[in-house]
């Protein structure tokens, strides 16, 4: 059985994104997982979601590899919003920017900005600088596979936003106090939800 990568996006992080970057129309979530980003969208404002996930155990409109160009060619949407697996993130981003009519917002580890000496990330961010970055506080998305305890990630994460409007001004913003306060309140509920989800998820494959 494939060990699919899974870590939910806290609703707080999505609330801040949607406050800072109002969206309408059809939004594509290509790595929907348990649907945390979709559930966090408020108020709906006529948004219509279309969802995909490679892992067939999660409910989604389709189940295809988000790096497959044919997935993107087969559908039309205004926005792409997702928290993708880190390793194929650049491939997913490349399709998202090309096929999204208005913009793209992706929850990514801060190390996405690191310039590597080889591979796609050698020049990718230089060639595709984001319109905006929302810097998030460091957070523990999962229990440690070694100790079983909750621990924060080694780096923080951020929302990277690409807008197709060539005149859109660039921006960098840092999480305000209300995001930190809301995240503190959400954390115990997040952890309980993740424990329930992972238990159910593992039961499906007999782990």
Characterize the structure shown.
- It is built from six helices and seven strands; from the N terminus they run αβαβαβαβαβββα.
- It has 207 residues and is of the alpha/beta class.
- It has one domain: Vaccinia Virus protein VP39 (Rossmann fold, 3-Layer(aba) Sandwich), CATH 3.40.50.150.
- A seven-stranded mixed β-sheet has the order 2-1-3-4-6-5-7, covered by helices on one side.
- Strand 3, helix 4 and strand 4 (103-109) form a beta-alpha-beta unit.
- Helix 1 packs across helix 6 (177-204).
Main traits of this protein?
Rossmann fold, alpha/beta, 6 helices, 16% strand, seven-stranded mixed sheet, 207 residues
* Mean pLDDT metric: 92
- CATH architecture, by name, is 3-Layer(aba) Sandwich
CATH topology description: Rossmann fold
Largest sheet: 7 strands, mixed
Content-based structural category = alpha/beta
Instruction: Indicate the overall shape.
Output: globular
Oligomer: single chain
Number of helices: 6
**C-alpha Rg (nearest Å):** 17 Å
Strand content: 15-25%
Task: Give the helices and strands as they follow along the chain.
Answer: HEHEHEHEHEEEH
Number of domains: 1
Q: CATH superfamily assignment?
A: Vaccinia Virus protein VP39
Strand order of the largest sheet: 2-1-3-4-6-5-7
Task: Tally the beta strands.
Answer: 7
Low-confidence parts: none
Compact summary:
The chain is an alpha/beta fold and 207 residues long. 30% of the residues lie in helices and 16% in strands.
